[in-house]
Every structure is written in C-alpha cells, then in structure tokens.
C-alpha cells in the first residue's frame, strides 16, 4: 500500500488515486481509480486502466474521440465532491474570507460550533496542518457521523475532535487561538468564549440572516467582550473564459450569509 507522501510525490496515476477527469468546465468527474472500472460521460467512455500509469496533466481520448485531461484533484475539488451533505454548508468564498480574517495557520488550535456536514471543519483542519487541531461541538449525532465520514475521506480525521455537545455551554478546552460559530443563535455562545479562547483571539460567526447579525451585535454591545467588530458579505462573480466574449456568467449565487468578525477582549 502506498503512503500519502508517495501518492503526493508520484508523477503518474496509480490504482487508488483520486483523479479529476476534466472534459470541459461543465464536465469534471472525480473518481477513485480502480482496475477494470470505467468512467461514463455523455462525451464518451474511458477505462480506468487507460489512466493508470499516465502522468498528471496528460490528455486521454474518450471512446467518441473527444479529449479529456487527467488532473490531480486539489483540496477544493475533493471538498466540493464530498458524497454527502446533510445541512446547509458554508461556501468556499465565505470560508476563505473567514479563515483569512481569523489568522489561523499551521499549528493553530481552533474551536468550531455547529459542524453539520463538516465543510468548514474540513477547511479548518486543512489550514491548521498536522500540528494543529480543530475542537468541534455538534448537538446532532447523525450530523457528526456524516462529518466524520467526510473528514475520513479527505484524510483529515486526525486533526479533528468532534464532541456531541452544545457549544453554548459544554466546551471544555482552554487556550484556543480562534473560534468559528455556525449555529442558529451564536449570540448565546459568546459569554463562554472567554474561558475557551486566548485573550484577544479572533471570533468568526456565520449567519444567513440580517436579523441574526443584529442579535450578535446587540449581545456584543451588552456584554462588552468584543472590539474591532466587522460585518461582511462576500459576493463572488465568475466570468466566462472566452476571449471574444468576456463577460460574467448569467447566473450567480445571490445570497449565502453574513460574516461577523470581532476580537475577544476582557470585560470592561
Ligand atoms: C448550518 S449547519 C453547519 C454547517 C457547517 N458549517 C458546514 O459548513 O458544513 C449548523 C449546525 O449547527 C448545529 N447546532 C445548532 N445549535 C448548536 C449548538 N448550540 N451547539 C452545537 N451545534 C449546534 C446543527 O445541528 C447543525 O448541524
């Protein structure tokens, strides 16, 4: 059996590798390579055996003569192709901004409340690296189980502890570097953060409605535990890559949610 490091370094596709078969921007198939299997598409068929031993980035010809490319999946490709979503997930455009604002990185220890499908969890685990850790609280065991399966598929289980519990009152960790909350009433979790996080730690909250943002801001004004408060909404517009007709796509994601950022301070 190949180690993760061997797979990472390998220039050629081997049995057991994940491959992103790229036909065009609308036809990208993430598959785990198995001898004897085939990949079907409306543009034709290709055998896994014809991909094994080929180098990353090489073209391969489908049964119809159409061309596809063998791409090594990125973390983004793997995340977006997770087989099971059981809750609303935070979109990459929001996750990216939240992680950048939080300042976390290699070796960070992080709190997450509301795991759901585990999209944000996976991105946090990826960001903190093997020396870091993500401590998560989720009230519904069935969601935690799905998130655990997703993390296992991504090879990130070792960096994450998921506890079945209420992030508003059950957190036992101390000295963490940042907190991420994606629960319906994050304002009720703010008071306990002082015991969990290092002083001045960044806190990131994701909520889908303005009504919830108002309640978070009101709680911060009341409890006086946050400064440097910012509220963001990120909009991502993709353009069609045609040199003769360069313009945005007709459709875009209109709304995901709001990000509230603040730095935890000692009560004044
Ligand atoms: C929208 S989902 C989270 C999705 C997740 N951020 C993702 O990107 O996949 C919200 C989750 O918070 C959980 N939840 C709600 N209140 C909670 C609480 N007080 N403590 C812990 N988890 C909670 C719900 O069960 C649900 O799974």
Task: Give an overview in words.
This protein is α/β, with parallel strands linked by helices. It has two domains: 4-73, Vcp-like ATPase, Chain A, domain 2, CATH 3.10.330; 78-264, Vaccinia Virus protein VP39 (Rossmann fold), CATH 3.40.50.150. The protein has helices at residues 4-9, 75-80, 92-102, 119-128, 141-153, 193-196, 210-223; strands at residues 18-24, 27-32, 38-41, 44-47, 59-61, 67-71, 109-113, 133-138, 160-164, 178-181, 202-207, 226-232, 258-264. The strands form three sheets. Strands 9-8-7-10-11-13-12 form a seven-stranded mixed β-sheet, with helices on both faces. The protein has a four-stranded antiparallel β-sheet with strand order 2-1-6-5, with no helix packed on it. A two-stranded antiparallel ribbon has the order 3-4. It is elongated, with a radius of gyration of 21 Å.
